[in-house]
Amino acid sequence: MIQFILNDKETSTDLPPGELLLDLIRYHKHLMGTKIGCREGDCGACTVLIGETVNSKLRYRSVTSCLTALGNVQGKHVVTVEGLNLEVSGQGTEKLNPVQHAMYKEGATQCGFCTPGFIVSLAGFCLSDSDKSYENAIASIDGNICRCTGYKSIQRAAKNIAELMQQNKGDVIEYVTSNSILPEYFSGIKKRLLELNSKTNGIEKQTADPKKYLGGGTDLYVQQHEKMVHADIDFLFNKIELNGIKKEGNKCILGASVTITDLMESKTIKDAFPDFRKVNKLVSSTPIRNIATIAGNFVNASPIGDLTILFLALNARIVVSNEISKREIPLREFYKGYKQLDKREEEFIEQIWFELPDKDHLFNFEKVSKRTHLDIASVNSALSITMNGKIISEAGLSAGGVGPIPMFLSKTSAFLKDKKISEQLVNEAIEIAQSEISPISDARGSEEYKRLLLSQLIKAHFITLFPKVHLNSLFTNAEH
Ligand SMILES: Cc1cc2nc3c(=O)[nH]c(=O)nc-3n(C[C@H](O)[C@H](O)[C@H](O)COP(=O)(O)OP(=O)(O)OC[C@H]3O[C@@H](n4cnc5c(N)ncnc54)[C@H](O)[C@@H]3O)c2cc1C
Ligand code: FES
Ligand code: FES
């Protein structure tokens, strides 16, 4: 049995743990506010909040329920749009909360299909630890699409909500419940989750079939939804040792189930890479980043996986385990061919680690896609560089979308070592990079276009990282 709190009620289900949360919510619990749009994580119509206690604190994040397995909500609090309604005391009726009211007042809803998703995401903004700026309110709805209202009215509603939340100087749950922003029952959830988790056990294995390792499911449920429902799933989020980010000496060690949002919120990562948050905002959308794991990105083995490209440049190592023994593999040696990995079926990624850079280190990530948010790259690239005065002492350049695997450009990286930055150096590096790649023409662009993109991204790395070096004519002298 999977047990969790759904809105204000404890609930349990004997549906398979691989079943989708969205289907339980709509077809078994008949909560029709959560909509089905794309079923692929793209539209946000199915957004719900997941609350759990992390380091003794109640934390809420938005997720797309169309990609969330029931096993991933075991022992948690699931909030649908119905769970955000305020009760009119003593009358047994409900009224709009300030988030819903802001959408109504600003005319931010037309056909209404997308509206529950926007409201849930904005409620997630209210409950989050993020600074309550207008920009963060807008960022919280980057995974929601509206096809008929136009976004201006939704932006105005988000602004009203940010202003309301800016008045809070204390505990968020206390503020939203005592000011009738969200229902009173939220104040008791932390205690109820602790009680629930003290009496529930882990998820039992179902069949003797080979296990499917599941992170957030943002790849598996897009590609193999039907198969996953009855698969024997190993829910990796539920293994405590696979979560968390820690620093040991100069090593940054990431549990395999660390999500992109975990990376963005980590102090260790922020201290080492001040621009990391900006970089990661280019990856998918808030509800996907909230559940998508690093290991899932590596094992999916997409040649354009953003996190893979990023960690290739940083020379990350992965530790794989079969529960009996472990081995360590440099990420740069993990990919053996298109979707072929140096990993046996019974092995899962346990940890990822990399050396934290020192103060002479520079890092940049670039991505070109048709849309800024919620789009996969045509070509992406990362450059990690360590300087000794004006000389490059170490360089790692990676690129995606330019070959059958996510590529570490070893020859170009070796060429850059011990050189001084100049326009000539960048142009020579581009020539070597062109000899290392083998892009093909596909839906994301022709071979020629992808070659051009990589050249431009390499120039962008150097112009961004070395603003004081005169490199401006790199672009003005470009042939295209
Ligand atoms: C709408 C949308 C937008 C997206 N945008 C982007 C984007 O901009 N950039 C990008 O790079 N990706 C994007 N993705 C792809 C996806 O979100 C990422 O690849 C994500 O990191 C996958 O992680 P996951 O935990 O959800 O993987 P899952 O679906 O859980 O797993 C993916 C694969 O990894 C395996 N796996 C997971 N964890 C482990 C482990 N610890 N050990 C061994 N195997 C494991 C699974 O068995 C499966 O084969 C997007 C996906 C969606 C749906
Ligand atoms: S139905 Fe579109 S994101 Fe879930
Ligand atoms: S109001 Fe119709 S899709 Fe947004």
Mind explaining what this structure looks like?
- This protein is α+β, with helices and mostly antiparallel strands and 480 residues long.
- It has 2 domains: 205 residues, Ubiquitin-like (UB roll); 238 residues, Uridine Diphospho-n-acetylenolpyruvylglucosamine Reductase, domain 3 (2-Layer Sandwich).
- It is built from 19 helices and 20 strands.
- A hairpin with a 2-residue loop joins strand 1 and strand 2.
- Bound molecules: flavin-adenine dinucleotide and FE2/S2 (inorganic) cluster (2 copies).
* Strand adjacency order, main sheet: 2-1-5-3-4
Radius of gyration computed on alpha carbons: 23 Å
* CATH topology assignment of the largest domain: Uridine Diphospho-n-acetylenolpyruvylglucosamine Reductase, domain 3
CATH architecture of the largest domain: 2-Layer Sandwich
Number of domains: 2
Mean pLDDT: 93
Report strand %.
Answer: 15-25%
> How many strand segments?
20
TL;DR of this structure?
The chain has helices at residues 21-28, 98-105, 115-127, 134-139, 151-166, 172-178, 189-199, 220-223, 225-229, 260-265, 267-272, 276-280, 286-289, 294-300, 306-313, 410-416, 423-436, 447-465, 473-476; strands at residues 2-6, 9-13, 47-54, 57-64, 77-79, 86-88, 93-95, 212-214, 233-235, 245-248, 251-255, 317-321, 326-330, 335-337, 340-341, 348-355, 361-368, 379-388, 391-400, 407-408.
Could you name the key traits of this structure?
480 residues, alpha+beta, Ubiquitin-like (UB roll), Uridine Diphospho-n-acetylenolpyruvylglucosamine Reductase, domain 3, 2 domains, five-stranded mixed beta sheet, five-stranded antiparallel beta sheet, 19 helices, binds flavin-adenine dinucleotide, binds FE2/S2 (inorganic) cluster
